[in-house]
Amino acid sequence: MFFTITSTFSQSEEIKDLPQLFKDREYQEVIDILSSEDEKRELSLDELFYLTKAYGRMGQYSNGLVYAERMKNICLAQKDTTNLVRALNLKAENVIDLGRYEIGVKFCEEASTVFRTQDSLEYQKLCFKWGMMLYHTQQFKDAYDVYNKITHKPYRELSLFTNNYALTLMGIEKWDEALKYLKKSISLDNSTGKNTSINLSNMANIYINLKQWKQAEIHLDSAVKSLQKGNSLIARKAIYNNYFELFKKQNNIEKAMFTLDEIEKINQDIFNQKVNEKLQALESANSSKVSLTKKVKVIDDQLQLSQRQMLWGAVISLLLIIGLLTTLFIYKYRNIMAAHENVLVEQKLLRSQMTPHFIFNSLSVLQGMILNKEDRKAVSYLSKFSKLLRLILENSREKLVQLEDELNAVQHYADLQNMRSQNQFTYTLTFKNKLPSQNILIPPMLIQPFVENAIEHGFKKDFINAKIDVDILFKDNKLTCIISDNGIGVDSDTNKSNSKKKSLATKITSERLKIISREFKMESGVHVQDRQQFNEKGTLVTLILPYKINKDA
């Protein structure tokens, strides 16, 4: 027997004290009140506005984005342009906080056409987010043009404007004007008691570009002194990155090495912070589950007072609700654990990339060339090293990179190793057949670890005619990279530490490929073989690479 349970809710009056709660920073209370009301009735546009803002203040940007989109759709349906521009600004705010800069740039371009003359101030608010997203996508000239659309004097006097405008000026290398706005920002921050460490670090960056080393170091020292406990790790890392640039350009190897150690410590702290955030998200999910269970129990107690036939219907309904909630929480838990696993694997990858040990060795080799007055060789070595370092740092920040850029990074790495190694080897790259497009995107740093293994462990001292071949093959919609060498073979290397290092690199890549395969819904994998089974010498690595074709390029 099935029964239908109907409940009627009277439309509650719009909550009057929301602005005061928000002003008092009681963001969680705003969320709790409005979430409860949302289950009973349709929220007003003002209520949706405060709920979206509260989620943003609590750092729950994904929830904020959902409600901003909901507010936008209601405004479009009601043709309420006044509230629509507010909703568009809320959406842009959550998009930039989520770091979705490229999506945000396109959104702001489309949204900008909606604003009318009477929406000038709301449009200028949008320009704050739009300009910063253009800056983060390195479209510095466009960011500069957008920020110049902010003409409202009180807005231009805000620390937020002077900070961001200074960054765009730095992007287009207008150093003197950028200094002027940074000094203005520091003055504003001092007057309001805000921390000035980031602005001091940015000023130091300008002095580095102007080759005014003394001024740069003075401002970096001041930035470190003004750091407070509440400053983010990203801010600390930015300061020490500037220190590294300063010491590198001054050729102060010892201080540069010390600074890299500090950056490595901060990277570890950033990683730990990310893990803690994921754990807190798990705890929050469990807390929500307990809260919902309590609510279900209350409903169950109330239903026991009703008629017996209604009770059976209520029990069936509650069981369905609990089943759906359990499924929802299991799904969320798996997503969080997958993201946690992704963070761990990416951290292992980043730590395995061009380590400080490799950088220090390269700098030592360069120093030796200079001391031996091998000027041409030193210049060539430095050029290749800087290109490799730039490629790896740029690629490590991206989820996907051009196949051509990844292969260029491997080429530079091989060339660099050839210059510093006593054992010279031949490196060849071959495309076995025509690729479906020149704009193939792949995850970064999948090929280089296996080329490194071949160089470091495949060839013994005084090995003659060493050779490494990289073949790219596209067949049956599979992108395959085959790395082969004529060294001693993977089964012949009895050095335990070396074997452990090689197996670790293979394991990290395998774990990473599993995660990417699930995301791309595409087959991928890595297979390492000793060529002895083919009556040949050396090691054969077969990489099936996940890929996407950039149709917008």
Descriptive report:
By secondary structure, the protein is an alpha+beta fold. It is 67% helix and 8% strand. The chain contains 21 helices and eight strands. The protein has helices at 18-23, 27-38, 45-57, 61-78, 81-97, 101-111, 120-136, 140-147, 153-156, 159-171, 175-192, 197-209, 213-226, 233-249, 253-303, 308-352, 356-371, 375-397, 403-420, 448-457, 496-520; strands at 401-402, 425-431, 440-442, 466-475, 478-485, 525-530, 539-545, 548-549. The strands form two sheets. Strands 2-4-5-7-6 form a five-stranded mixed β-sheet, covered by helices on one side. Strand 4 and strand 5 form a beta hairpin. Helix 12 (197-209) runs antiparallel to helix 13 (213-226). The longest helix is centred in the middle third of the chain and has 51 residues, at 253-303. The radius of gyration is 29 Å and the shape is globular. 30% of the residues are buried.
